Amino acid sequence: MQGNASPAKSAVALVSGGIDSPVAVARMLADGWTIHAVHASQEPVTGPEAEEKTVKSLQYLAQKFPEGISNELQVVPVAEVLAAFTEGDAHRDYFVHMKRLYQKLAHLCALEVGASHVLSGENLGQVSSQTLGNMGAVEVASPLPVLRPLLGLDKQEVIAMARALGTYEISVGPEECDALGPKHPTTIADMDRLLRNETLVGGLVKAAEGCWSERRTVHLF
To answer: Are 21 and 44 in contact (CB under 8 A)?
Structure first.
């Protein structure tokens, strides 16, 4: 990935392979933003389907918005780090730790490409990591402002938008990001506990840098 400065409206998008993130990317592309995509891969805990859907959805969007998407998708392995949060006191905070790690990965990408924002497909309250009590703890993992164009939409609205956009059939299918998650996740994050838990992986910065060093680049077109 080149370190050249990107246009002013430039964001790193966290693209999961689910329904929401391609819709979020499309909304920002339509507004003239340049998008650099990052996919956090949980293989071998999960299969390759999430990455495959991510690639297909971005390729589809690149045809609709040929000037907006970077050719380089960064695929970052995260399964080993996330596995550290499946035991003991850390497990209830698993999804918050996952999102904090992803936020830091987006920041590392942004430092390389010159992006000014992080783009997320989050919807307020749709899952446990997206409660107000948890989103603040996730957001502070990166100094960059977060764009959440779907924040106030419910799932059915996002599905309708995905169908109209043409990404729904690509993205539909079981979500695998909760493969290691707890049955009863926390909804109000405790920052002291999060930071204590993250010492299990040497701290969030070290963990993210380790994952980022193992990334591979997939060329979309």
So the answer is: no
User: Is residue 1 predicted with pLDDT exceeding 60?
Assistant: no
Question: What is the SS3 assignment for the chain?
Answer: CCCCCCCCCEEEEECCCCCHHHHHHHHHHHCCCEEEEEEEECCCCCCCHHHHHHHHHHHHHHHHCCCCECCEEEEEECHHHHHCCCCHHHHHHHHHHHHHHHHHHHHHHHHHHCCCEEECCCCCCCCHHHCHHHHHHHHCCCCCCEECCCCCCCHHHHHHHHHHHCCHHHHCCCCCCCCCCCCCCCCCCCHHHHHHHHHHHCCHHHHHHHHHHCCEEEECC
Mean pLDDT, rounded, of the chain? 91
Instruction: Name the fold adopted by 10-219.
Output: Rossmann fold (3.40.50)
**Which pTM does this prediction carry?**
0.91
